[in-house]
Structures are given as C-alpha cells and as structure tokens.
Amino acid sequence: MLKKKNLEAAGGAESGAAALADIMATLSTGMDVYPLALGALVDAPAEWNFYKPLPEGKFLELVDSIASAGLITPLLVWEREPGVYTILSGHNRARALALLFEKTGDARYLTVHCLIKRAAELTPEDAQALLIDANWCQRTLSPSERAKSIVRKYALAGRGARGGGRTYDVIAQQYDLHATQVYQYMQLAQLESAWLARLDAGALSVKAAVHLAKMSAATRGTSPSTA
Questions:
Q1: Fewest beta carbons less than 10 Å away: which of 44, 65, 120, 181?
Q2: Coil, helix or strand for 44?
Q3: What pTM value is reported for the model?
Q4: pLDDT tens string for the chain (227 positions)?
Q5: Residues in CB range of 178: below 8 A, 6 or more apart
Q6: What is 147-169 written as a DSSP string?
Q7: Beta-strand (E) ranges in 20-103?
Q8: From CA 173, how far away is CA 78, in angstroms rounded?
C-alpha cells in the first residue's frame, strides 16, 4: 500500500524516502542492480512524466548529496528497446549525475546503478503506472500533480485491468486514500489551468477548488469519470 496523502496538504515530504524504499523493495523482488551507462538512459515520454523537475534549491541539495555520499537509491528503468532504458524513477538523479560529470569531468558519474525491468515484463500501461506510483511516494506533489496522477491512474485502470472491484476503490486502496478523496482529486483535475495554478500557489483552498470543479462539471454536463 502506498503512502497516504491528505487532500488538504502537499503532504509526504517527511516520509517520502521511507515510502520510496518500500515501493522499491516491492518492485525489485527478484531483480538485480546493474551498472548502466548514463548515455543509455532516456527520459520517459512527456505525456507520462508530467511532473515538474525539482526546484533549484532541492535539486542542488540532491547534487551535493550524490557528490558526498554517492547514488544511494538506484534508478528504476525499463529496457523498452535493446540497450535503451526508459527512466521510470530517477529523472532528477540522472540530471544530477549529468551535471556532476559536466562540472567535474569525473567518469564515475557516467555510470548509473539501476533496477531493470525488461521489455517483456511490462506493458506501456504498466510502465506508466510505476512512474506515477514512484512520484506519488517520493515527491511532495502539488495539488494539480496529485490530481493528474489520480486521473491517469484511473484511465490506466479503466483500460485495464487486473483485479476486481470499483476503480475508485482499487486506487484508494493502492494509495491509502478514501474513495471519496479519489473522486475529489478527479474533480480537481477538471479545473481550468488558471484555477489549478491558484490552487498550487495556495491562493485557493482545496475545498473551494472542489466546489468550483463541481460547478464547472454541472455546467458542462460532465462527470469526473467521463471527462
């Protein structure tokens, strides 16, 4: 079960590392860590990885951490094509290693330790779901990013797939949320970008944003499950 996020909070920063360790332990069952060339790694498609890069201050902290202690947590990658590895977890770590090599010329930063999922082990939908799960666990997401995560998970589950039960309940169980929270996140995702920006900036409360989303959906005659 993934780490619970309160709908009213950015949430999770204090326990993000522990949550990421938990998910990596689950994902890596039966997997080995391999050293890969940094140049063999490619970013996940933009439509999958809609998450913002770390803010500059946090990114520089990551760079300093890797410089002083090395790469503690391996990246999770998918060998979608032979010899080409799509990053599912670790985009910021890969960027930090590239910057360290650029600044120091130290070749050790060109080798990245990774957990590898082979091409046949995942469908594109599975890979995208893993990317979303990793970001949900390890990042302090903005309200709009959390809403987009839930909507994308809902769409993937709808094409999908495994297990029974109502989709809202399945996602709620995975993310340790209530089904009503899942529903509210999906409502928030329908807001116009200007309102989402105000929500992320703290100029609009979650309660008010959900109310606006309901009004907007009623005006359009849509619902979160059909948007």
A1: 120
A2: coil
A3: 0.78
A4: 554 444 543 333 333 344 445 555 555 555 678 999 999 999 999 999 999 999 999 999 999 999 999 999 999 999 998 999 999 999 999 999 999 999 999 999 999 999 999 999 999 999 999 999 999 988 889 999 999 999 999 998 864 445 556 888 888 888 889 998 999 999 999 899 999 999 999 999 988 999 998 887 777 665 544 44
A5: 172
A6: HHHHHHHHHHHHTT-SS-S-HHH
A7: 33-37, 41-42, 75-81, 84-89
A8: 25
β-pairing verdict for 75-81 and 111-118:
parallel
Please tell me whether residue 118 adopts helix, strand or coil conformation: strand
The secondary structure of the chain in percent helix, strand, coil, rounded to multiples of 5, reads: 55, 10, 30
With tokens 């590392």, the residue in question is 17
Alpha carbon 150 to its chain's center: 10
Which domains are assigned to the chain? 1-140 (3.90.1530.10), 142-221 (no CATH)
Residue labelled with tokens 């900036």: 201
Q: How many CB atoms lie within 10 A of CB 41?
A: 20
Q: Which residues pair with 41 in a beta bridge?
A: 85
